[in-house]
Amino acid sequence: MFRSLDSDVWFLDKPFKMMGVELGGRMTIVKLGDGSLLMVSPVAMTSDDRAELDRIGPVRHIVAPNLMHHLYAGDAKTSYPDAKLYLPPGLAEKRKDLTADGVLSDQPPAALAADLEQHLVQGMPKLNEVVFFHKKSRTLIQTDLAFNLIQMPSLLGRILFTLNGALGGVRATKVLRSLIVDKAATRRSIEKILAWDFDRMIITHGDVVRSGAKAELQAAYQFLLGKS
Question: What is the pTM assigned to this prediction?
C-alpha cells in the first residue's frame, strides 16, 4: 500500500535484504504540477500496487537514482512504456538492456524543472547518486546518502549494521564513506544539498524523516563538513 507523506508525495515499501538481513527498500512517487507522476527508485510492484498507482495519476517519468538501485527500472518501463526513463551517469554501460531517455545531471529535465531541483553527488563515482528536492512539499528524496535504521529486530542485523555505522538514526554508513574518493567534492555536494529548504526526507533504507531532516542529515555528515 502506498503511504502519503504530503498531498503530492507518496512512498511504497517493499522487502529488501542486505548482507542477508532484511532492512526494507522504498520507492517514491511525486505528483508534478501537470498531474503526471515521477517514480524514483522503482521496486517490484504487484498488480494491486499498479492499480493503486494508476488511481493516483499517470506515470510519465521513471528515475534510477544511482548505480546500485536500478534492478526494477526495466520492469517499471515495461509497465509504463510511455514514461521517460532517466539514468545516472554510467548506468547505461552497466545495464545495456535499459534505453535511457536522458542521463541525470544537476539540471532537471525540462518536464521536472518546475517542481524539482536535483544534484548529482560528486566524489563518489561508484555510486553516482542523484538526489531530488521537491520544492512544494520541502522534501528531500535520497537513496543511499544516509540510512535511518532506528532499530533492527534480528541479532545478526544489529551486529552487522552497528559495525556498518548504520544503526540508531540518520547515518552515513561506513560502506557509503568508503565510496568517497574525493572528500572535497563530496563535501561541496553535501553543502549544496543542505542549502535547499527541505524539512522532510525520504530515505530508501529506514524510517522516513517527517520533520527536522536538514539538521539530521547535517549531523550525519559532520565527519566531512568543514574538513578538506
Answer: 0.92
Strands 130-134 and 139-141: antiparallel
Phi and psi at residue 81, to the nearest 5°: -65, -25
Amino acid in the structure at residue 164: N
CA atoms within a 13 Å half-sphere pointing along the CA-CB vector of 127 = 22
Instruction: List the one residue out of 76, 61, 106 whose CA is nearest residue 88.
Output: 106
Complete DSSP assignment for 54-91: HHH--EEEEE--SSSS-TTHHHHHHHSTTSEEEE-TTH
End-to-end CA distance of the chain: 44
Task: Report yes or no: 146 and 172 within 8 Å, Cβ to Cβ.
Answer: yes
- Tell me: the pLDDT tens digits for 66-76? 999 998 999 99
Is 87 in contact with 98 (CB distance < 8 Å)?
yes
DSSP letters spanning 16-46: -EETTEE--EEEEEEE-TTS-EEEES-----
At 169-182, the pLDDT tens digits run: 899 989 899 999 99
